Amino acid sequence: MRAVVLVLTVALVACQQINLVPEFAVDKTYVYKYEALLLGGLPQEGLARAGIKVSSKVLLTAVAENIFLIKLVDPLLFEYGGIWPKDPFVPSTKLTTALAAQLQIPIKFEYANGVVGKVFAPAGVSPTVMNLHRGILNILQLNLKKTQNVYELQEAGTQGVCRTQYVINEDLKDNHIIVTKSKDLSHCHERIMKDIGLAYAERCAECTQRVKSLIETASYNYIMKPAATGVLITEATVKEVHQFSPLNEIHGAAIMEAKQTLTFVEMEKTPVVPIKADYLHRGSLQYEFGSEILQTPIQLLKISDAPAQIIEVLKHLVANNMAMVHDDAPLKFVQLIQLLRVATLENIEAIWAQFKDQPIYRRWLLEALPAVGTPVIVKFIKEKFLAHELTIPEFIQALVMALQMATSDLETIQLTASLAVHEKIATIPAVREVVMLGYGSMIAKHCIAVPNCPVELLRPIHEIAANAIAKNDIPEISLVLKVLGNAGHPASLKTIMKLLPGLRTAATTLPIRVQVDAILALRNIAKKEPKLVQPLALQILLDRALHPEVRMVACIVLFETKPSVALVSSLAGALRIEPNMHVASFAYSHIKSLTRITAPDMAAVAGAASVAIKFLSPKLDRLSFHFSRALTLDIYHTPLMIGAAGSAYMINDAATILPRAVVAKARAYLAGAASDVFEIGVRTEGIQEALLQSPAADESVDRMTKVKRTLRALTNWKALPTNQPLASAYVKLFGQEVAFVNIDKTVIEQAIPLATGPKPRELLKEALKALQEGIAVQYAKPLLAAEVRRIFPTAAGVPMEFSFYTAAVAAATVNVKATITPPLPDQLETFTLEQLKRTDVQLVAEARPSLALQTFAVMGINTAFIQAAVMAKGKIRTILPGKIAARADILKGNYKVEALPVEVPEHIADMSFETFALVRNIENPAAERIVPLVPELSVQNYHTPISSEITGYDMSAEVSLRAPAPLHKTLCLVVPYIEIKGCVEVHSHNAAFIKNATLFYILGKHSVRAAVARGDGPAVERLELEVQVGPRAAERLLKQINLVDEETPEGKTILMKLREILNAEAKNAPVSSKSSSSSSRIISSSSSSSSMSSSRLTEYMAPHRASKAVSSGSKASSLEAIQKQAKFLGNAAPPVFAVIARAVRVDHKLLGYQLGAYFDKSTARVQLIVSSIAENDNMKICADGVLLSKHKVTAKVAWGPECQQYAVIAKAEAGVLGEFPAARLEVEWERIPMIVTTYAKKLSKHIPMAALKAGFNLERVMNSEKEIELTAALPTQRTLNVIARIPQMTLSRMAIHLPYAVPINPDGTLSIHIDEDILTWLKNHMKE
């Protein structure tokens, strides 16, 4: 036993004496074999992958204490683009040759105690090559502890400072030390990464707690041998995996793998010698970003002469997008943006000077430049506006987009700040507002990228705010608050608090809109520091001395801070004794809507709201929409990690009929991120304050009196105050306010002359003159709709990125020409209505709009030399040509529109989506390889182990699965009469045979194409729609309209034969069996519904209390009696108007339909007859309507051959039911199509459950099988009783609360009366 203890003691002492620092002796050169492999794709074999491989000898030499040289010998680059694993790597000979000189330059670095320090290299070594060396040095980065075998630390590396776990083992048998370290790249103290287009995306941590879309990890394994003064690294292997899916990794994900091996070969005596050049400090082990930021991953460009290439692409875009958009126009537009990013300010100015006077080229440049997103472009736009080379609309459009797209660095912020205080900008309020809002957004983006951004960036805004507050400059204060709201910096809280009501006495005296702006300015601050904003918002919300609108806005801000259960419960307790019903209604509805939220980031708030709602009175739920409301709805699908939410806030005022404010917001969730995509708000503060000072604010009068007084107050708009806006609106994109408008008395006074003065007449005259001469317009609009990128280094020092691009180009060609007979006079002011009636106007217009859209999603390697990635590409292209001719002969009452034939392309719509792997290098563009990610008819081999529990012994089997053949279908449909054939061609091939998951259904190749062509029948010359009004209507009918009269012998014979035919058809049709009546839960009517029992409804429904009841039978007989007097009104009078829709064919065969409208004034009867104009086609639709009295109307619609196949009768009446005004609608059917009855029976099965959820009582009774009756009565102007009788059941609900009062008196008369002066004012303005 003592011997054993002695041996263990000796072993332990020996182990402790080993120095774990990697050793590289000064007089030796260590030779290693290095290989790095990067592959991207899906983990399943048999699918395509793309990647690169680097292999080389690596020489390490110590040149001084802690100073080493590393040199690559015989470096080789390989490309991979094929089916994994059967296809081989391909040598990239040209690229290797081009980079060989750089790759073999020795790099100097500091190395002490296993830690890499500074790195040095000559200036001729590019950042890409430097990063490849960093990838090798990263393997040497070892923080080994002598006293611990298992430990964790934050370790610096190529990818930043990340959480790293070490495990050290000793193999005594082989005298090896085995070190394993793993890095969790999702938990880094300092991660090297570049995000583009993600500045306003919020990380939804709760969304990724259960499921994740991105998993990143790296594992390092070392085998070391003890040496004289340390250890020798004999072998090192690195494996790094990035697994990403936009949906959820459980359902499949794409992976990007990086593998490195460093194997010791030998030691040499020949040292590595540095080249004769200055070795400059090139940073540390951390990755250095180079040109990959400017290099888009969707195309690899070799930029040799940027200005010349820009001009070439610009000319290509202009030339190929004139008549219609080119297929690859979006990709070319992205190429133009990429080239402009490389160009210098001098280059761009030279190109602008060349093309600024050519409108088409100028427009393309102004669309592309803002999307470049560099400080150079912001400076360019600024200089050109100050030099009067840009119009105000051009400048605003360019600047808004440029500030949103630009990289927010200190240079861009300073440019924007200087622009905001420029004297020329100050003279144009609209421009200054855009610049100031953009300034706030730039600060917000910068502080997202640099969390500890300096407060000094806000100093100019704070100084402007201090001056505005001192001068009580209300418009300036409001603007500054919006800017601070965009910036969202906690340091602005002190300035904002000076303007918050309730916290400062002076702030309470400010206008309501300023108080509201001050509260809204807290919203973006709340996203960063919710605990700072919550007490402020709660204090304002509970301060009853403040205006209700201010308190309700504070409620919005409070719940955006995601308050705790305690805070929400405290609010609920205060609301129980809240005297203001608008505040109580708003807060209650907001809390209640939050209880239904399913988004993960709002789960805690939803739980808090569910608790708080129990403290509040349910009476608040029954308040009408007259009171303020908040509504939030959302949908979130956890397996796909996608969702959307919408919020709407309506802040009402007790004094007027107009809401004080309406706000709507949309929020989106995707792949663990969330963003407030869009928000719009409208306020009517000035109008409200003016109305509050008018008699309309009298609370003692009824609502209709308020309406009349409000209308009268609005007619006297000139008396409204000039020092405040009458209304305002704002728009936010991604949480940033990008535009707002204030409408005040001055704006109205300036707008009225523009609308009623001589300028509109001049514009009308010029437009009419241009129409007569002919107008030809060609327009193209490009747009970079999305550019989202995340670039980060791999362990091998090669950059990888996830990218999403969407670009679109729309183009249109429009030709319009008008012929006016007689010609219009030169003085349009003398043109009278009588002259207009005698004018014949003919218009011919042809348009050819087209759209091309391309979307790219990329995962892979993107450098200036080589790209290897997995890509998803979507394309949409549509062309919809059209040509119409219109004519208006006002004197003759004839109006005609014709659709003329046009040349149609082979496909009017073409949509495709494909996924593939690609690899390409800059030295050999022709060798680009693109391989479909899911090969068609591929054979998948899966190695499936079979359990020994089944077979009794271990074995495995190769299971071969063959991908199904691609789906290819074509569906064609010929439109009757006009002989136009439409075809849809569908092609689809996916990877669902591998796994039944959403991602695998998406992968593959899918396309849909739509085509329109002429059919096989006679050609159609044109389609006509003609309307004839007046006595000539009968002349325009192409086929005489006749209705069969049952009273004549001929009519009886015809109808008898027709019925025989219809009965025979009915017998041949399948008969649907009646479903047996099943017992179900019967809810008896409540006692309150007894006053509206069915017997009483039939008994008493009269227009006035003294009038007698009229039964249903008498109503029907009245309609029948009138029809018996004249079956067809056209026999006695011509049609009032006629409508003819027809297709004019080359064989002159009549095809189409015509409508004749007839009116008999003596019986108040209207008759509409729709009939086919085709020969031997007796299909008709007959609609008969009769106004039996002021309170009763009956209509019958019949259709089929001679209107005899189907018929429906509808009756509506209004009057008094018992003591209440009421209305009733009855629908009876004699015969209806079987398909209607089939679906009606299916629908009726769901009615009981829907009725119960809606609060209706249900009673099972055998009502008429061919009748539906709906009766509604008004016990008061704010409540409604409803009873509905349908076959087999009766539904009823009493005392339904209405949001607004209905202006009907108990005797059935209207309680509304519009004053004569208001009517006169409306008539005068309409006449003007």
From TrEMBL:
InterPro entries reported in the protein's UniProt record: Lipid_transp_b-sht_shell (IPR015819), Lipovitellin_superhlx_dom (IPR011030), Vitellinogen_b-sht_N (IPR015816), Vitellinogen_b-sht_shell (IPR015258), Vitellinogen_b-sht_shell_sf (IPR037088), Vitellinogen_open_b-sht (IPR015255), Vitellinogen_open_b-sht_sub1 (IPR015817), Vitellogenin/Apolipophorin (IPR050733)
Gene3D superfamilies membership: Lipovitellin, beta-sheet shell regions, chain A, Lipovitellin-phosvitin complex, chain A, domain 4, Lipovitellin. Chain A, domain 3, Vitellinogen, beta-sheet shell domain, Vitellinogen, superhelical
Limits of the Vitellogenin domain: 24-662
Keywords: Disulfide bond, Glycoprotein, Phosphoprotein, Signal, Storage protein
Region called Disordered, residue ranges: 1069-1098
Presence of keyword Phosphoprotein: yes
GO biological process: cellular response to estrogen stimulus; response to estradiol
Keyword Cytoplasm: no
Any one GO molecular function term: lipid transporter activity
Disulfide-bond pairs as recorded: C162-C188, C204-C207
The protein's name in its UniProt record: Vitellogenin
Native organism: Triplophysa tibetana
